[in-house]
Amino acid sequence: MGMIQFDVLTISGAILLIATFGVIARRGFMDWLNAYRLQSIVLAVVTAIIGYVTGIWEIYIAAGLTFVIKSLVIPKVLTHVTKSLEIESKTDFNPYLSLRASIIVSAFLVTMSYFLSQQIPFKSDPVVNVFLPVSMAQFFLGLFALVNRRTALSQVVGLLVIENGLFLFTLVLTHGVSLIIEVGIFADILVGIVISSILLFRMSRTFDSLDVDRLENLRDD
Amino acid sequence: MNSISANLTIVFLLLTPLVGGILVTVFRKKRIIEIVTICSASLILIQVFFILYAIINEKTLSAFGNAFYIDSFGAVILLPISIVGFVSVLYSKNYMGRQYDIGLVDDKHIVRYYQGLSIFLLSMLIVPITNNLGVMWVTVEATTLISVLLIMLYFKENAIEAAWKYLIIATVGLSFALIGTVFFYYANISAGSSEDAMNWTGMVHNSKLFDPNLVKIAFVFILVGYGTKAGLAPMHTWLPDAHSEAPTPVSALLSGVLLNCALYGIIRFHIVSSGTLGPAFSNQLLIILAVVSIGIAAASIYFQKDMKRMLAYSSVEHMGIVSLGIGFGGMFGIYGALLQIINHAIAKPLMFFASGTVSQKYETKVMSKIKGIIKVMPITGALFLIGGFALVGMPPFNIFLSEFLVLSSGFQSGQFLVTMIVISFLVITFAVFLRHLIKMTFGNPVLEMKKDDMGNLAIIPMIILATLVIIFGFYIPEQLQTLLHNASSIINGGSIT
Amino acid sequence: MPSFLEITLGIIQALMLMALSPLMTGIMRKTKAKTQKRMGAGIFQPYYDMVKLMRKDEVVSDQSSWIFRSTPWVNFAAIGTAAFFIPVFLSYSPFGLVGDLLLVVGLFGLARFFTMLAGLDTSSAFGGIGSSREMMVSTLLEPALFLAIFVVALTYGGTNLSTLVEGASNSSLLPHPQLIFAAIAMFVVILGETGRLPFGNHATHLELTMMHEAMVLEYSGKSLALIDWAQSIKQVILFSLIVNIFTPWGIASSVSAISLGLGLVIFIVKISVFAIFVAFLESSIAKWRLFRIPDLITVAIASSLVGLVLYYL
Amino acid sequence: MIENLILFQIIVSLFLGGAILGLISRNGRFSRPLIFIPSMMGAILTILFSVTVITTKSMSWEVPHVIPFFNLEIFVDGISAFFMLLIGIVSFAVSLYSMGYSKEYEIKKRISIFGFLFNIFILSMILVVGSNNGFFFLMFWELMSLTSFFLVIYDHDKEENVKSGMTYLVMTHFGTALIFVSFLLGYLQTGSFGFDSLRTSSSSFPHLIKDLMFVSAFIGFGTKAGIVPLHTWLPKAHPSAPSNVSALMSAVMIKMGIYGIIRTVFDFAGFGASPDYAWWGVLMVIAGSASALIGILYAVVERDIKRALAFSSIENIGIILIGLGLSVIFASYNLHTLSILALVASMYHTINHAFFKGLLFMGAGSVVHATHTKDIEKLGGLVKQMPWTSMLFLIGAISIAGLPPFNGFVSEWLGLQAILSSSQIPSTILQISIAFASLPFALTIGLAAATFVRLFSMIFLSKTRGTSLLHIREVPRNMIAGMAILASVCILFGIVPFLGISLLSTVFHLSSSPSSPYDAIALKNNDMTSFANLSMPVVAIMLSAVALGIFGFIRVVGGKTTKTIYGTWDCGFGKLNERMEYTATSISQPIRVVFKSLFKPHNETHKEFSIPENSYLVKTIKFNSTTKNIFEENLYTPIISSTLFLLDKVRKIQTGKINSYLLYIMITIILLLIFVRFNHA
Questions:
Q1: Which among D419, D525, D561 has CB closest to C57?
Q2: Could you list the residue ranges that cross the membrane (chain B) (predicted)?
Q3: What Cα–Cα distance (Å) separates residue A201 from each residue in A33, A79, B150?
Q4: Residue A219 falls inside a structural domain
Q5: pLDDT band of D633, cuts 50, 70, 90
Q6: Which residues pair with D622 in a beta bridge?
Q7: pLDDT score, position B496
């Protein structure tokens, strides 16, 4: 393949990573959602690029799906669910780590995922070489967001980021496995989001807050 | 058996719960849907026994090309699913009926409950019979979602909390599992396999050619991922919450069957990675997690106030013992582990049912408030004792044999230190678990209650299980023995024949 | 199987012990009286007392049961039987085939067991005191006695009394220093077993000093006679044991008229001397506090342990 | 021997039948016969069976493939048969006794459950000594523990019964774990849990393995046998259980521990005749002496009849262990005859203890049955109301106190002789230390006499101390019969030791066995001079002869005299009442003072003065004296509390914060990845 493609891949990967960082850095829920939407769009583009590079047509479908579901449907659902809530409960005022600290940790995680990818010997497949670490990084950053954030909403978003990472990861390594599985995964995620939004709804009813600190009745100490 | 009949078998097996669910949605009358579900559950039971018979005779059964593939190991997992599914449905009638009578749930809930139950069964049935590991992952994830729905059936605060934790942690965990799966797939691809690269059969076939480093990392992801779902410490944290808050029949299914499905995933990949690296690698990982789980369970049981939480922790312990057996390896170890899967799946639902009935009678799950069960409800009390003693591995009940085998294999494989540690943990667990059990069963009830056992439909499922518990204590049928032997040879050799 | 003559001789020895026992008591009483500057009764007084008691009617406590009534008989039977195993003037007793020193100790134990029960049977506080003290003392004496026996048995090769005494008579004490210590222990044990000072005092009926008397306080008439007699037989048995084991000179080792006669005379002399010595000792010391007695017994135990070590080293 | 096999199967089915009949007979009129007659028949057949096995040849039975890997192997050789004989005799007597005893349970609660457990309990003991495979051994062993546990807490209305049952269960399970470890070590060597393979190849094990096997098995079985300091469950469980059950437990069940130790030493752990193994014996002797002394010391101050009996069981187990240990020592120095002597001593004591302790527990049961109290401070004067019970109890007391002419004396005589023979061990240090070990032994014998004088007199003699005797009457006939059986056996084995010794010599294939009941137990020195002789029949004859003689003599000399019944001498005070007589506490007071370091007695006196300022006119004095159990305070409590402390730290990880949970997962994956990176397995 040509130099250009490679550059395109690298650049898009970089953009994706930055978008992910954007998601990590934001506080207010709406900013989150926008960041996530942005990231999803980038993801869709990346998917398309991969499709172009590898020349497997299913991947275009996947890209389309991604664009539709992730950057349109899910944000819509979430905004709908949280319409009734007032702004405070949607904003994550005090995560466990300060912004600066969390950036450092994320940086560490990114390096770790690159390191991890080094462990895995690959045939010289540029797509994999570029995007495997990116997807891993996305994954771990999402996980970190889950660990770090205190409101249920932001945890949902963290889940979504993880899921994006997964999607990219699967895509990169499998070049679109048998489409059934892709769809299955998609469906699972979608249902998961729906259920969690139901839960969010209920939570806001019962606890009139989405603060996960409220969810500490079940414990042993 | 030829491919057609094989296909039919599978189709019927999967259709039964599906149709059951649909019927439930169609007529929304409580009595009817109860009967429908019971029928479908018993149908499943019968079909599973049929399949088992087939497997015992001709080792494997594959349908739709290689999409579905059942070997002895899958059958071993299939058996508890059907049995526990049946008894749970049977028990649900009485249990949910009472909840309904005291107005805790309404018709809408009942319908939703039985729909959920059917789909739950369906998804769990797919896990051990599918050949495609990706599909397996999808179904396991599906079980999570459905069980979350079942847990948050009636929106009590704790139920919501448990559901939330369960959802988040399980999803995160399973995402690890997906990564692992894909890694394995990639390893398979790069090993040069073209089609059915996601199929377990294919993977085991090529496992010799896989890249070791990749497999190592992949297995770690699988272990953490499915381990989260299987409740191996320290990823077990969701388990006590979910099990304690779910409706009792669901808790029985969760701990009796769902955990096994997750372990099934681990063991499948364990076979593959043993094919590549030899068993030593995955064994030590399994042993580490197992010991941690058993220890944490032993520690946590003592301080529990809630009956079902205590049972949940004992599930953690038993999952630990199973993976310990697999980790120790050897004929004894693996056989013991498989036997332990079945035994635990028999004994734990018994305990859950008993505790469910008791907590309905006493209107609390708090153990300190429950006294003198044996006086208030003699039969349930006796069954409660049987289940409890079985769970702590007391002969002449079933779990004794499997634990005996597992521990022996520990010495066989030269893991003296680990075995001694585990034995001491088990002694501690014995003491602390029985302490709660005895305190609840004997003594005098705090307030005067009339003596009854909450109806036959509450008793019968327990009696079925209790009989199995006792019989398996000192007699295991020939067929089951052969089945277990084949299964353990599959795991042991990492060979498919 | 021992010959008829031997058996008769053995029986004669036993009967002789029984016959002699009151005399010893008398001698000791007389000695004490002398040392206390009294005239004192004649040395045959105990015989007269016994006959008198046998002729008297009894008073039996209404609280008491058949245990109380049967005790004197069991008591005498046990101690009387013990008498058969003791070599007196003949260095072996044919009953050595039947029993040994440990059996003798056991028989004493049987007697004591019933005496203690009888003391408690009448529900009088005196009996209680006696039994509870006897309980403690006898318990503590047991190891001392056994260790002493241990030393002796090891030295002379057996708890069979015939073997013991023969071995003793054939060897001199000098090569066996451990026997000295054993003798000390044995002596203390004898004082305790016979309830003499500093353990208890036969002379008084003061509850501070009573042990044996307290237990048998309720007895009268025939029963009392039996009890006293049994007690004095026990005393003689113990005396002759210590005498024959530790000063085995002149005991007859063969059945011939001269040696037998000689042995008899020598035995009586020895045992009387010993009795007098005990009496002197008794009148020269005071009764000890009950909880100082364990110290004395400890001394006994210690000395026999020393004897043991000496034997092995 | 096919007949034996059939007989055995009949026995098993009889007990099972009794169990099932008990279960289905729902407290009906016939429930007691339905339960206990099968068990009686089973017991008789067991006696028959074991006797045939002992006299003819061993029986083996194998049922393959009931469960994977292990076959149900039954193998009854002499030793097993010997213990089966004990089980048979005792359980026969106890079943007979229970016919009457368990009547009250019909009113109080379900006797049917009791019958079920009772039968299964006896059956499980038979199967324990019969089983020839580690797995099934452990299975029956735990079955035995489980059934006995339920029997202990059978009267579960009382909290403390359940508590003590719990202690028992946990401790015995701990023991089982150690036994399991010992089997595992054997399995490691032979690759099978079958006892046969152990027997054949155990001699070739490495020495370390042998030692480990022995130690773990010794601790494990010792827990069941109740050796100090693993004895704490015993004085708790026995009083809680119904008396017939505690008779079975104390007479037979704790002997299973002894059985296990014998098997381990002589069969499994590959004991060899070399001084390397002497320390096994030394360990046993030390443990035995400790148990004997401490057990009896606690018994002598105990107020509760059954607790006192339980403590004395600990003592007797100690004596048995001393004998066993001596025989091991002798064997390891290749002194064959001496080791036989010691073995016979300890086994003889095993027989005896089974009999008289069963008898005594049944006696205690009758007392409780009649008076409904176990506190000897409240008893007294029963000899007039319950002549039979008191008579039989007295026989038991004399036997256990080791006094001639009853059986206790014979075994203790043998034991002492064994200790005396220690002078032939070619090792001075051992000689001296064993000689010193005779000190606690002798002390124990003395204390045992004291204990049972106290028990008997406090229960049966003089005036009652609390409960009124009005409604107390003798127990029903079948209970007396049950006791009488064991009592007569006690006397028999005392007066005719030939029985026991020839039994043992056939069981253990001993070279020297007496020919006729009349010739004495004769121990010889090396120069064939007699070391010691004992011929109990003659002793018995002499005792009676002397008694007759003196009776005649006195009649001749004293002539005929009358007996007058009159009040006890009261110094003319005139109002003797039961509050003035000696109490159980006051009787044992001197001993309590002498051994105060062990009891740590804590006395407190409350005085009330009729005139507060005047401290001379005392109205009431309350005296309260309590003794502590130093083992629970200084050994068990620290261990348990420290364990709980650790557990408490561990379970804290369940914080309830979902973030922390996710963090665990993250950390786990990272750690595992690092682990994988840096380990090259």
A1: D561
A2: 6-28, 35-56, 68-91, 111-129, 135-155, 167-187, 251-271, 283-303, 315-335, 372-394, 414-434, 455-476
A3: 17, 12, 17
A4: no
A5: confident
A6: D606
A7: 39
Q: Beta-carbon neighbour count of residue D200 at 10 Å?
A: 11
Angle, helices D159-190 vs B416-441, to 10°: value is 160
Query: Which other chains touch chain B, taking contact as 3+ CB pairs less than 8 Å apart?
Result: A, D
Q: How many Å is the Cα radius of gyration of chain D? A: 28
Residues spanned by the domain of A13: 3-213
DSSP lists the bridge partners of residue D522 as D533
Please tell me the distance from the alpha carbon of residue A215 to that of residue D95, in angstroms, as a whole number.
60
Helices (H), B278-377: 279-302, 307-328, 330-362, 373-376
Amino acid type, D16: L
DSSP state of D652: T
> What tokens does B367 get?
């153990």
Per-residue pLDDT for D554 more than 60?
yes
What's the rounded Cα separation, in Å, for the pair B38 and B58? 30
Q: Which residues make Cβ contacts (< 8 Å) with residue D276, sequence separation at least 6? A: D207, D332
Which chain B residue's Cα is nearest to A200?
Answer: B164
Q: What is the pTM of this model?
A: 0.93
What's residue D512's pLDDT?
Answer: 64
Domain spans in chain C, listed from the N-terminal domain onward: 4-312
Burial class (CB in 10 A: 0-12, 13-18, 19+), A211: middle
Positive or negative, the Cα torsion across D130, D134, D140, D142? positive
CA distance A218 to chain D (A): 6
Q: B331, exposed or middle or buried, with CB in 10 Å at 0-12, 13-18, 19+?
A: middle
| Tens-place pLDDT, residues A6-20 | 777 888 888 888 888
Please give the pLDDT value at position B497.
Answer: 35
Nearest-CA neighbor of D330 among D431, D234, D261, D414?
A: D431
For residue B121, give the nearest of B53, B177, B240, B38 by alpha carbon. Answer: B38
Asked whether residue A142 is domain-assigned, the answer is yes
A111 inside domain = yes
Structural domain includes residue A220: no
B153-163: per-residue pLDDT in tens?
877 888 888 99
Q: CB pairs below 8 Å between B and D: how many?
A: 150
Residue D551 touches chain C, beta carbons under 8 Å: yes
Please check whether residue D459 is in contact with residue D380, taking contact to mean a CB–CB distance below 8 angstroms: yes
Q: Is D469 on the interface with C (CB under 8 A)?
A: no
CA-CA distances (angstroms) from residue B354 to B100, B350, B372, D146, D426?
19, 6, 14, 21, 65
Residues 6+ positions from D453 with CB-CB distance below 8 Å:
C113, C116, C117, C120, C131, C135, D397, D401
Q: CA-to-CA distance for B341 and A27, rounded, in angstroms?
A: 46
Distance CA A88, CA A200 (A): 15
Number of domains within chain A: 1
Cβ atoms of D478 and D96 within 8 Å: the answer is yes
- Distance (Å) of CA C185 to CA A154, C141, C168: 91, 10, 18
ipTM above 0.95, yes or no: no
Q: What is residue B365's DSSP assignment? A: -
Q: Is the peptide bond before B396 cis (omega within 30 degrees of 0)?
A: yes
The answer to whether D672 and B220 are in contact (CB under 8 A) is yes
D272-317 per-position pLDDT tens digit? 888 889 999 999 999 999 999 999 999 998 989 999 999 999 999 9
| Nearest CA among B459, B448, B451 for reference residue B95 | B459
Interface of A with B (CB under 8 A): 116, 119-123, 139, 143, 146, 152, 155, 159, 162-163, 166, 169-170, 173-174, 177-178, 180-181, 184-185, 187-188, 191-192, 195-196, 199, 202-203, 205-207, 212, 215-218, 220
Closest residue in A to B147 (Cα) is A195
